[in-house]
Specification:
heterodimer; A: alpha/beta; Rossmann fold; Alpha-Beta Plaits; 2 domains; six-stranded mixed sheet; four-stranded antiparallel sheet; 14 strands; about 35% helix; elongated; B: mainly alpha; 14 helices; binds adenosine-5'-triphosphate; binds magnesium ion
């Protein structure tokens, strides 16, 4: 075994040629550890689905190199497919067959030993056992999505790709699927999650890659926040007075101070180290501190900032 | 190899739920078997000249008839024309099944999950092709057996029924039929990967029928006489055509193109 579940080097995919050339993925280099839940974020057409298809040995890269679960793409594609479970962007099922028959078919193609056992396990786990004999054509979108997730898991793949697993689901179904993904992550599976729901990525992913043909940023969501925005401490005061903000001038570690109503918003790198000094100074200045908290930037803000930067960089 | 069988079983479970496919596979062969039997029945008592609408039996027919004479020979000559029906069956049936099964795969968007499994292109295509060709061959053979039994029953003439079991006929049904089925399937696989409507796929693929029809036209107008040698040559020719078509179908079935273009 290698130290990485997934490793890519300059992975590239171009479609067409000449005037019709589409650069879908350009020079993607990634290292994803076993058991990591990795979020792939990016706008429509960023190349997320294309990346997943390459890493699932469904389409061939036009450049670069990738290894998944110890097998090199393009050299051991059948092995890669055996190790990978994919929830495709459009999860198709045979509409005229029952849920159980659909899963049994795919389990057989994956060479699952105990087909009825695995099918039952995942139908139950996703709450579809009572509907196992119904034709999939009658299923709602959410039920289809759950069935497709079950299909991706039948052969117990160590590596799992989920392409927009909660797209189009109602909040309750989305929640259920999200909890399920969290569960899978805890089981030690390596997961790549493509999503436009940044809150979801924030909650589920150990690291995220923000991606638009090229990788724009790659880190844990908390680190990205810090890198882009620093951290922000909020002092809730009993009353607003200009001198409180002035009292904080002169601290070298402070990046920015803003007064907003009765709140003071202080941007700095290391609140744990510097908060005591700030609090002392404010109290000395006569401020009555009611509450100290940290303002969390949402991953959405991080994402939008990265996209903005990308636009500036690329004209 | 078991994966091929897995695909075939799925094909059958799925495609036979389609009423139109079911009609083509079950009802059409029955119809094609019944028509010649009905005609045989109505001609039972007619004189040979009446039956053929001719002044006298042409010498080449006498050649075909062997020991049969008179009305029986006329019956046999008429019935010979219906051999065509039994060679059309192995073309029409697989074209229908394959068109629905491949276009269906596009429609339900199951192709991507299917190609994500560790199945090889060859296994997938073999499953699809056999899933379409096997029922066609089996149904054709069954229909032909039914026809021979029916002919015996209707005419009460074992010699006539016996002629239907001569090597010429058996070669046509047992060898040419399956070869035609393979050609039809390859055609359907190629066409279905380009279109999105199973009916269009079916109609275009059914062009394979034209040579079969042409062949029988040529026979009817006396341009060729169907005999054992001709059928053998035909079988050999078909073998070459099949090999070419199959190779082309596999060549054209590029996973990637199909995955990203089959929308
Ligand atoms: N077969 C193809 N031929 C030409 N271009 C293609 C093909 N497949 C994908 N592309 C292009 O590659 C780019 C990346 O597409 P991809 O589907 O990977 O994006 P995505 O990040 O998954 O987008 P979304 O969020 O909308 O799902 C797009 O510009 C798309 O048009
Ligand atoms: Mg996508």
């Amino acid at each position: 075994m290698t130290d990485f579940a997934i490793r890519t080097e300059n992975l590239t995919k171009h479609f067409g040629r000449g005037k019709e050339l589409v650069r879908a993925v350009e020079g993607l280099s990634l290292e994803i550890a076993p058991g990591e839940v990795f979020g792939l974020l990016g706008p429509n057409g960023a190349g997320k689905t294309t990346t997943i298809r390459m890493l699932g040995a469904l389409i061939a890269p036009t450049g670069g190199w990738a290894e998944v679960a110890g097998h090199v793409i393009g050299r051991a594609d059948a092995e890669v497919r055996r190790k990978v479970g994919i929830l495709t962007e459009t999860p198709g099922m045979y509409d005229s067959l029952s849920a159980e028959r659909n899963l049994a078919f795919f389990a057989a193609l994956y060479g699952v030993a105990d087909i009825p056992g695995q099918v039952e396990k995942y139908l139950r786990m996703l709450g579809l056992w009572s509907r196992r004999d119904d034709e999939v054509g009658e299923f709602s979108k959410g039920m289809r999505q759950k069935l497709a997730i079950a299909r991706a898991l039948l052969h117990e793949p160590p590596v799992l790709y989920l392409d927009e697993p909660t797209a189009g689901l109602d909040p309750e179904a989305a929640r259920l699927v999200r909890d399920f993904i969290a569960e899978l992550g805890k089981e030690g599976r390596t997961i790549i999650l493509c999503t436009h729901n940044l809150d979801e990525a924030d909650r589920l992913c150990d690291r995220v890659g923000v991606f638009k043909t090229r990788l724009l940023a790659l880190d844990a969501p908390a680190n990205l926040r810090r890198q882009l925005f620093g951290r922000m401490v909020v002092f809730h005061l009993a009353a607003a007075e200009p001198r409180f903000a002035e009292a904080l001038q002169g601290f070298g570690f402070i990046q920015k101070v803003e007064a907003l109503d009765t709140k003071l918003l202080v941007t700095l790198d290391d609140p744990e180290a510097h908060n005591p000094a700030l609090i002392r100074r404010l109290v000395e200045a006569g401020a009555e501190i009611r509450f100290v908290g940290e303002a969390r930037r949402s991953l959405e803000e991080v994402y939008l900032r990265l996209m903005q930067n990308d636009e500036v960089n690329n004209g | 190899m078991d994966k091929v069988w897995v695909i075939i079983r799925k094909e059958w479970a799925e495609v036979f739920k389609n009423k139109f496919v079911l009609f083509t596979v079950a009802f059409m062969p029955l119809l094609f078997t019944a028509i010649p039997l009905v005609i045989l029945y109505t001609m039972r008592s007619a004189s040979p000249e009446e039956a053929l609408g001719l002044g006298e039996i042409p010498p080449e027919f006498a050649l075909v008839c062997g020991d049969l004479a008179g009305a029986a020979c006329a019956q046999f000559v008429i019935v010979s024309q219906f051999l065509m029906l039994f060679l059309l069956m192995p073309v029409i049936i697989p074209v229908t099944i394959a068109s629905y099964s491949i276009v269906g795969e596009k429609r339900t968007r199951t192709l991507e999950p299917l190609l994500a499994t560790p199945i090889s292109t060859l296994e997938l295509l073999a499953g699809k092709a056999l899933g379409a060709a096997l029922p066609a061959v089996i149904v054709t053979w069954g229909a032909y057996a039914l026809f021979v039994a029916g002919a015996l029953l209707v005419t009460g003439n074992p010699a006539l029924a016996g002629l239907l079991l001569k090597p010429l006929w058996l070669l046509a049904i047992a060898v040419v039929g399956p070869l035609l089925a393979v050609a039809a399937v390859s055609m359907a696989v190629m066409v279905s990967s380009r279109v999105n409507d199973p009916r269009v796929a079916e109609q275009v693929s059914a062009l394979v029928m034209l040579p079969v029809l042409g062949f029988f036209m040529a026979q009817t107008f006396g341009l060729i006489t169907i005999n054992q040698t001709l059928i053998l040559w035909l079988a050999l020719l078909l073998l070459a055509v099949d090999a070419g078509l199959l190779a082309l179908a596999i060549q054209l079935f590029q996973r990637e193109t199909i995955l990203t273009r089959w929308k």
